[in-house]
Amino acid sequence: MGSDEIRSQGFSLKELFREVAYEIDYYQRDYTWGEEEVRTLLRDLCGSFKHWSANPAYLRRPHTAPQYFMGPFVYYEPSKNRRYLVDGQQRFVTLHLLFLQLRLSAQERGDFRAVDRLNRVITTDGEHFSVGITDHEPVLRAVAESRKYETGAGDSLSRRNLWARSQQIESQLVEELDAENFHRFTEWLLDRVVLVGIRAANSDHGYRMFETMNDRGARLTAVDLLKSHLLSHVGENEDQLNTQWQEMLRELATDREDTTAASRYIKAFLLARCARAGQDDDRRQIDSNLNVWVRQNAAHLGLVPKRPDNFLRFVQDLLKSARLFRPFLAAGRELKKDGDRLETVLFNERNGLTCQTVAILAAIDPDDRPSDAKDKGRLVAAYMDRWYALRVLQDLPVQSADADALVHDRLVPLLRRCRTAADVASALGNLLTQDGGAISDAVTLGLRGNNAHQIRYLLARATAYVEEACQRPHDVLVYLDRDRFHIEHLWANHHHRVEEEIPDAVVFRSRRNQLGGLGLLEGRENSSINDLPLNDKAVYYARSNVLLGIIAPGYDQRNPLLRDFIKTHNVDKVLRSFGLRETMTSVVQTRQELYLRLFEHIWNPERLGLPVTLPSEHNGSDEPAAQARPAAAPRRPTPGRRRTDVARMVAARILTAGTRIVLTYRATDHWATIDEDGGIILTATGGTPYGRVDEAGAVARGTKTCQGMNEWHIEDEAGVRISLRTLRDHAAASGAL
Length: 737
Description:
With 737 residues, the chain is of the alpha+beta class. It is built from 33 helices and 12 strands.
């Protein structure tokens, strides 16, 4: 290879890491990918896999399926089987974490083929990691051995971030994929995902390439090309608008410390104000190449050469909207306790509802006063936060696809028609009446296989709400930090302690994990007391937050602010202490009701500024109907609320609501019923349906995971059991599904 010769080669992931160790040079930065970058990568990978696996032809002949291109990387190779990464460290490290989590899952399932294949990309010799960055090794060892990594004061940013992203990958994989798909996803990932390696001649050559690739001023982005196109048609205002455009770019980038912020903003603006309703192609093209979409849709946008006034108005609207949107960018970056009351913007960002940007921009008019724009955006963010909480409480999916459908199909068309903040409030208030279910429905909801992040959010909001009302110092972001605060189980995982009261182990597991059996406790405290009985824990709870402290007898004494809160919220029967004779069932049910009442206050539409107009009815009393508390509406199924195979089979009438299914584990039959939404209601526990058969099966078995489609069966009239997977596959083969 010549001194400056550059070569390129495509690698599948199984080839990329085959008997090769990767290292980094001194000039490389730490591992800095955050939650959003990792979420996006996993979402794209899992989405592409689902598209691939939905095609029977690809399943029969995997080698004919299109490859997933993950981008280029740059390296040099000082010796055989040893490569130095010049560009691509963030993706390589993230892939390595993904491999480790997939191997842990395969080990638990006993999937030895997947374990063997993953071993070949994780390690070069059975001992050393393929991505051999010395600073990362303690964290990678902990992940590989399925033990917690205790971060210390001397830990680097990379180590802290590695552990956080590893935990994120573990939970997101369970959210994105059913258990039966983990093996197939692993095969697809190793065989069909490719990167293109650009090989430098040596270390000096690699460093020169690194400098060139990181010289941001040398590239023309889609934003640059769009700016050139628009400003070239605005006539005599070009210089003035050019200055304003540069100011917009600086403000947006500074606010997010992110050079892609301007691109994301412009895409959101186009989606909010310009994309045609119901046109998925518009959304895809704007996301992939906004500059080309604007040029190709010039007639639709009115951006034709003979109308320079249209170009001028378009650019001015873009710039004015950016100034109005800037407070929301800041609010999405850190919690600001000020008069703007934009806290839910940050909560939505952390909960993956990043598409709120589009909805907020759809509500804002470029000519709005700043105060009016804030009022509109606040209402939109509050609505989406309530939507998220309500779906979590109903155990409905809250993935990006669900949020995207909400924003693009429902909110954007609605908000484009609103002119004032009052219009936005009224429109969103009316939309609330169409949202199925109620907070009070979640009588048994709790921790399940894939919802720890969501349950933590509910607990954090409730904890912070009570702490604030009692004028105690608190930080909701600390409650959301899984390393600082743990989800505390009031009951240790010892069934024998309550076996006389609750003989059924499935009921015990379910009840122990209900919201009413949980709280948030500082991590160090949780680790030291988690095995104690509840009455012994209460002493320690008393020095924690109010929601846990109240369990201790006498906690509310000499606490007038707490007593005032109890009185004004009418929660004296549920926000209380418990005696020695109180049963586990009584405590959990009492505290479950407590949480649900708090959630009704936190997400009360009127408190959020979203007035709900209810039908006028005579309530059978002298009290006017408008003042009476409305009864909870019956839960009505909404088509497409679940996207599981069971829900698809119910929609196709292959299964019907009320169908009983059975899972046999260790010679014991566990029964459940399928509801009208495709949810799974365990016969032993009843209550809130499980969204997926995997979760219901894991609770029934008492294991971490379960391949539900394989293990749950229906029984025909002759008593023959047929697995849900077999039923699904036969339906797909016959064209019924």
